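Input.
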Amino acid sequence: MKYGMIYSHEFNKFSYGHSHPFNLSRGERFYQLLERNQLLSNPEIDLLKPSPVAEELLLVAHSPAYLKALKDADSGEFKIEMLKYGLGSQDCPVFSGVYQFCRLAAGATFEAAFKALDGGYNFIFNPVGGFHHCKRSFAEGFCYVNDINLAARLLLLQGYKVAYIDFDAHHANGVQDEFYEDKNLLFISFHENGKYLYPGTGFETELGQGPGMGRKINIPLEPAADDEVFLYLYKELIPPLLEAFQPDFGIVLFGADPVLSDPLTHLHLTNNSLAEAAADLKKRFKHWIGLGAGGYNLEATARTWALVWAVLTEQDSESDLSMLGGVFLGSSETGVAGFRDLRSFSSGPEKESAMDEARRVARYLKREAFPRMGVK
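Output.
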């Protein structure tokens, strides 16, 4: 197996603002955690440095007018007409270097995808990727350029079938909208129910349209959903869907905001769920990439990604990584924590309701999507 980590310390130059929840130091914290625990020193791992994506390639995913507005915002000077494109909102502020940041982040995802295909890699991880809310002409949800749509569209144009799986707590509305009628992209999104969380979409009835009907799989989770609920849905739905679809390439978002400690969401998962899903997907994809996406508890996010990375690169131990000796909580100097969260399960009526809803969603998708996908 050959693995890649694509990251640049250049990301540290950029900031959404000191009070913004999307703190770009997450990527650096994660990278340093891997270094301290010698999880980048395996000879099967290559450290890759991204380049800014070519400006003309951004037109694959975005309109010329939107890209012009985004480029104008690079100076950090807000203009009222930018609001037409979602730029300058509370979620997507104008900041110095925003266009260059987006080019670098999109370049990392673009390079990861095509190096995974052509460079002999089984898996490449880009922690500063997964901007799944951005539309063709509108920034939203902390996302200015949709790196996923860029990479997926280019893969589809080359004739590859793509499976996109999103574990972020927020529904991947920008990706769904782009490929809603596409039969060659299997879209699967686990997320907190849109009744309770932005962007308010992603209900199980959103199955696609035209040729894409039945190939858009939305799996909303109730706020009390825990590892048991998540893994029930994963095991019931994902293996048969992937077996039927037979993708050539996988794009997976390992958003860390479904974990219980995240301040912006309401799910009760631990990072063990994502690790178990990652281990299963490793057996199902020959070539694939992972993207960081959300996660607003900085330490929990870094630990979650580190756990997923260790599992996927076969560096996890029988002791569940609890004795790796890394120091992380509090500072890089003091405090010891294992990568894995302690198992924490919901209980009572809320848990029962979450599991009942999960069973209902699973039944619905098996009835409405499985036949269209040819699931046996």
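The chain has ten helices and eight strands.
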